[in-house]
Amino acid sequence: MPVKLSRTMPATPDPDLTVRAAKETVELYARAADQILATVAARLRRGIDTPGWSEAKLLETAALRNEAQAVLDQLLADTPDAVEAGMARAYSQGAADAARDLPDLQPVVARLTNERAVRALVDEAVTALRGTHLQILRSTLDVYRTAVYEAGTTSVVTGVRTRRQAAQQVLDRFANRGVTGFVDRAGRAWDLASYSEMAVRTTAGRAQVAGTLDRFTDAGRDLVIVSDAPQECPACRPWEGRVLSITGATPGYPTVGQATGSGLFHANCRHALGAYIQGVTRRFTNTADPEGDQDRQEQRRLERGVRAWRRREAVALDDVAATRARAKQREWQARLRTHVDETGGKRLRYREQTTRAI
Q1: Contacts (Cβ under 8 Å, ≥6 apart) of 217
Q2: Same domain, residue pair 85 and 159
Q3: Cys-Cys link to 90, which of 3, 207, 308, 316 (CB 3.0-4.6 A)?
Q4: How far, in Å, are 22, 96, 260, 275 from residue 93 at the CA level?
Q5: 92/215 same-domain check
Q6: Does the structure show a pLDDT above 70 at 113?
Q7: Does residue 8 carry a pLDDT above 60?
Q8: Which of 170, 187, 219 is the last residue of a domain?
Q9: CA 239, 194, 122 angle in degrees (round to 5)?
Q10: Spatial distance between the Cα atoms of 246 and 240, rounded to a whole number of angstroms
Q11: Are residues 295 and 277 in the same domain?
């Protein structure tokens, strides 16, 4: 006897699923960035007021390289398992979402995870992350040499105190942008934690969609509906509530592939797919939230500001720099509190820590 489909709306997906799927990997890379920043600052701080500092620091370049390489080697060892756990979790959740949408999918949802599909996504994400490691090493050594050069050159003319200030200025620039490993086509340098979160969240989103589509295909379903994600971005806003064909076999509907090629499921996209049954599923409209998107982007900017000043405190060469960095943290946190209060948003304190990213 067929199952009666009484639900008129698709299940509401969890827009934060990919954040949780990426959590372990992001924390690995964020901690690595913190270690690298601390290592550079510690080597520059050591003996900075003594004669011959510049020469001694240059002789330590190889040792610094080895220390940074050790951090990256540990990432190479830890990353695959963390990424695989996140991808499997996202795929399984996508399959579970499909089962909730269509009760008649319950018998097939128990099918084992498509290990080949998940493995391909894991390999893709891990390759992207590993591709940043050489640039991370190069940029770290470049910052170190620049700090030694600028501090050493200045101190010849004006004395030890200015040497410290010059080195601090270089470290502050380093802390402001974070440890970078990737530059996008627009020329934006991504700090290590932000890039790792973007890469893994994006791939986890694809794993979630794959899990959903596999289950719908198992059940012979071809039509899906794009979810409504609050504070959506302009790229995917036109697709909210649109009905898509998985295979292209149902005439009159764009395909999932066409929607993806036109901007849906972009980097960090929070949309998912639900079942669409003609005559049963109620379509939704008027989902646009451009002000919400602007508010979210402003909140992310303020959170990045807090994190930047936390990093500057971590690389402070003396108490003066550390005190100023703490004061600036409080200033940016106050601005963040005001923004959240005025927009009715939710303050996400974990995003103010240096172990989180975007």
Answers
A1: 246, 247
A2: yes
A3: 207
A4: 14, 5, 20, 15
A5: yes
A6: no
A7: no
A8: 219
A9: 75
A10: 16
A11: no
Name the domain boundary from 167, 190, 219.
219
| Distance (Å, whole) CA 16 – CA 228 | 13
Q: In this structure, what token pair is assigned to residue 3?
A: 């199952």
235 and 215, same structural domain? no
Report the greatest alpha carbon distance in the chain.
Answer: 90
Cβ burial of 291 (10 Å; 0-12, 13-18, 19+) is exposed
Q: Can you read off the two tokens belonging to residue 346? A: 């939710």
C-alpha pair distances (Å), 122 with each of 130, 169, 234, 255: 12, 39, 28, 25
pLDDT digits (tens, 9 = 90+) for 144-192: 999 999 888 765 555 555 788 889 989 998 888 888 888 877 788 888 8
pLDDT surpassing 50 at residue 2: no
Q: Measure the CA–CA gap between 115 and 123, rounded to whole angstroms.
A: 12
Q: Characterise 201 by phi-psi region: left (phi > 0), alpha (psi -120 to 50), beta (else).
A: alpha
Which residues have a Cβ under 8 Å from the Cβ of 94 and sit 6 or more positions away?
Answer: 207, 208, 209, 210, 211, 212, 213, 215, 272
Domain of residue 265 covers 222-288
H helices of the chain, in order, are 17-45, 53-59, 61-101, 106-109, 115-130, 133-158, 160-177, 192-218, 256-261, 290-314, 319-343
d(CA 277, CA 105): 13
78 inside domain: yes
Bridge partners, 182 (sequence order): 190
200 in the same domain as 324: no
**Token couple for 248:** 């292209």
